[in-house]
TrEMBL record:
Pfam families listed in its UniProt record: Plug (PF07715)
Keyword vocabulary terms for this entry: Cell outer membrane, Membrane, Receptor, Signal, Transmembrane, Transmembrane beta strand, Transport
Signal peptide extent: none
This protein's name: TonB-dependent receptor plug domain-containing protein
Species, as recorded: Aquirufa regiilacus
Cellular localisation: Cell outer membrane
Domain TonB-dependent receptor plug: 101-203
PANTHER family: HEMOGLOBIN AND HEMOGLOBIN-HAPTOGLOBIN-BINDING PROTEIN 1-RELATED, TONB-DEPENDENT OUTER MEMBRANE RECEPTOR
Membrane topology label: Multi-pass membrane protein
């Protein structure tokens, strides 16, 4: 027979003042039942058995517990946490699903990232089953990610909730975020919260970087590989007192050797020099938290034929590519905290950036300039209790672009004010529902409405189902997002009806189950997502000697299903196996004006990933091995049966990565290999013998361009 435990939870300060503490959580261990404290500080839980522990917690306060032997009324007083926290060592589970998140979200921790060299963001997903990374062409070295079957332009990428890889930065942006700066990566599939903006269409990536108050006093990472690349990363942090701290993060990398493994006369990898520096500050009190920082990077790239020299070669006779990029960014994040009301808060995010890029593809010149400003004001609170919470706010985006290509100039200024609201319903340990809406006013594209919904259902013990539905949209940056297409002799054919708007609905479901095999933990995750475009910018490579750009004339969709199994068969041994299926297709214009539906070129329908990770006791030795199998993919019709590409589809292939790490007291060494079996695409550059002829094309890339690479490095830390 159920009986009732009741009580009142109050905050208690050093002066003896007490105040009701709504929003605190109470949990009765024997019955595994919990509840939320109401606005009057009262709680009530119906229980079946005695005795047992009753746990009381609230954000910003010291937890408390009470031994309960019978039904009765309790007075509980919680004290605020000390402003100075003692050191806590957190041992994270690598690459795990975020059980608490309402979205289908995976967290890549530092332990996950350390399984590979992870020199920058583009190399952070080698052991991840959901994200693929590919070269956009065989000359520039630019990379792009793919999520749910679509390119990274449809993924909202942020650094600590500040917009990051977008605009002109989208060309080489994946290379600009050093891996050692990253503390974790939150990878969400499907629609993200309306609080974060309107550009998420297939998912969101948010990176947390090294913080001034929690980073090592000094950190050094040195790296070198067999292909002539090396880099040095240094981080230093200093606490002035319990409130103010700062950190300086530096990165330098260089590709110094000209490599031509396939003997086609072109460098397999571009030569580059990259310098990236960031300084950030943090000021935290009981009621305020302020973070601010600025960063600057400078990069030069050089590629093309082996004999190309930027100062001496004739660009009409020797094919060369060059790029010079400079970027400045600054941000500020201000939060007003309410220690006795942890459900309440006000936050303001501000950022600004200036980006410039000058490039050439042989005799074809490009110049781009971008100035951006972003602001996001967020207020959150609750209705009655923390079972009903809400967020509301306003955002503003300013983008000014000036671009020049050949003899054409393009300039535009975008102003996008917006407003949003989001409501969350929580039935503890059973169901969570979030519904959000935002409306944005684009000065060129008009008013846009973005509805989004998320749900999480705890079906049974260790069974969780998630669902999401929503819309996203974006304004296309045609040159920056397709820079690799300039590395060919095709001409650009732009349709007169071209609409720069892309808009899509995305919906999906995810089911996860935690269980044991014997006495060892296992996890199974299945998800399915579909993206249906209402407006899409088509980049059509199906016509010989031309790249056509036009608005989608019909249906365009992307379907993605994935199943992932995680298991620890032995102590300190982790095993991940995943299979992904993708069906991505669009209607294209045919030569005679008819429509034809084609699958997306260069996209593998099937992908398998297996990762094994083993660590000896105390992590003194760590061993990691990853196998990726990529299925066949379609080659654009433009070159099928021409002799240059005799096959309709590119073959399936495997990639193997491995790494061994030895840890010492303050430092560790690692040795690894990528592309162990040295598989490369045999003809990544078509017409390489005569790059100024009509048949030259470096954009038909479907596999690895460079062969086997061995690397080594060390990490040194002073905590």
């Amino acid at each position: 027979m159920a009986q009732e435990i009741t009580g009142r939870v109050m905050s208690l300060d050093d002066a003896g003042n007490m105040e009701d503490l709504p929003g605190a959580t109470v949990y009765y261990q024997p019955d595994k039942k919990g509840g939320i404290v109401g606005t009057n500080g009262m709680f009530s839980i119906k229980v079946q058995q005695f005795p047992g522990w009753l746990y009381i917690r609230s954000v910003g306060f010291k937890a408390d517990s009470v031994w309960v032997t019978k039904p009765q009324f309790f007075h509980v007083h919680l004290r605020a946490q000390d402003s100075e926290l003692s050191e806590v060592k957190v041992v994270a589970s690598p690459g795990g699903q975020d059980v608490q998140s309402i979205q289908s979200r995976e967290v890549l921790t530092m332990k996950t990232l350390a399984k590979a060299a992870c020199c920058n963001l583009s190399e952070s997903f080698e052991t991840n089953a959901s994200v693929s990374v590919n070269f956009s062409d065989a000359v520039t070295g630019a990379k792009q990610i793919s999520l749910l079957g679509l390119s990274g332009t449809y993924v909202q990428t942020q650094v600590e909730n500040v917009p990051s890889i977008r605009g002109l930065k989208s060309t080489y942006g994946l290379n600009y975020i050093p891996g050692t700066w990253i503390r974790s990566i939150d990878l969400s599939k499907g629609q993200s919260s309306v609080v974060n903006g309107y550009e998420s269409m297939t998912g969101a990536i948010n990176m947390e970087l090294a913080k001034p108050d929690t980073s090592e006093v000094y950190f050094l990472n040195a790296y070198g590989n067999s292909q002539g690349r090396f880099e040095v990363n240094q981080q230093a942090a200093h606490k002035f007192n319990g409130k103010l701290s700062t950190a300086l993060l530096t990165h330098y990398s260089q590709q110094a050797a000209r490599i031509d493994g396939n003997g086609d006369g072109f460098m397999d990898l571009p030569l580059f020099n990259l310098i990236n520096v960031m300084n950030r500050w943090k000021y935290a009190t009981e009621h305020w938290m302020v973070q601010a920082g600025a960063s600057y990077l400078r990069e030069t790239r050089l590629a093309g034929q082996n004999g190309f020299d930027e100062q001496q070669s004739n660009r009409y006779q020797v094919y060369g590519f060059g790029s010079n990029t400079g970027r400045f960014e600054a941000f500020a994040k201000i939060a007003r905290l309410f220690p006795t009301k942890p459900w309440k808060g006000v936050g303001l995010i501000l950022s600004t950036s200036q980006h410039q890029n000058d490039a050439y593809f042989a005799f074809k010149q490009y110049a781009g300039r971008e100035q951006s400003m972003f602001g996001n004001l967020i207020y959150q609170s609750m209705i009655s209790n923390t079972n009903h919470t809400w967020k509301a706010g306003a955002s503003f985006l300013y983008d000014a672009y000036q671009e020049r290509y050949l003899d054409s100039s393009f300039a535009r200024t975008e102003l996008v004010p917006g407003f949003f609201g989001e409501y969350t319903l929580i039935i503890p340990n059973k169901f969570t529902f979030v519904i959000g809406n935002r409306i944005d006013f684009h000065n060129q594209l008009g008013t846009k409405w973005v509805p989004r919904m998320h749900a999480k259902w705890d079906i049974a013990a260790n069974w969780i189902m998630r669902a999401s539905l929503g819309k996203g949209w974006r304004r296309v940056n045609p040159l920056a997002e397709n820079m690799g297409f300039l590395a060919n002799s095709r001409y650009l054919q732009v349709g007169a009806d071209l609409n720069p708007l892309e808009e899509a609905w995305n919906y999906g479901v995810s089911l996860s189950h935690d269980f044991t095999i014997g006495n060892r933990k296992a996890n199974l995750v299945f998800d399915y997502f579909q993206t249906d475009f209402t407006h899409q910018w088509m980049v059509d490579m199906e016509t010989a000697h031309a790249i056509r750009m036009y608005s989608s004339p019909g249906v365009s969709y992307a379907k993605s299903a994935q199943i992932e199994f995680n298991y620890s068969p032995l102590p300190r041994l982790e095993w991940k196996t995943a299979y992904r299926f993708q069906d991505v297709a669009s209607d294209y214009w045919g030569q005679n004006g008819s429509l034809r539906r084609l699958t997306k070129p260069f996209l593998n329908r099937d992908r398998v990933l297996v990762n094994l990770a083993y660590a000896t006791k105390y992590d003194i030795w760590k061993f990691d091995l990853t196998w990726q199998w990529s299925g066949a993919r379609r080659i654009p019709n433009a070159y099928v049966h021409t002799g240059d590409a005799p096959e309709v589809s590119a073959p399936a292939f495997s990639m193997v990565y491995g790494q061994v790490t030895r840890q010492f007291k303050h430092w560790e060494m690692y040795l690894g290999v990528e592309n162990l079996f040295n598989f490369t695409q045999p003809n990544p550059i078509m017409g390489a013998a005569d790059p100024f002829a009509r048949g030259f094309d470096a954009t038909m890339v479907w596999g690895p361009v460079a062969g086997r690479m061995v690397y080594t490095g060390l990490r040194y830390k002073i905590n």
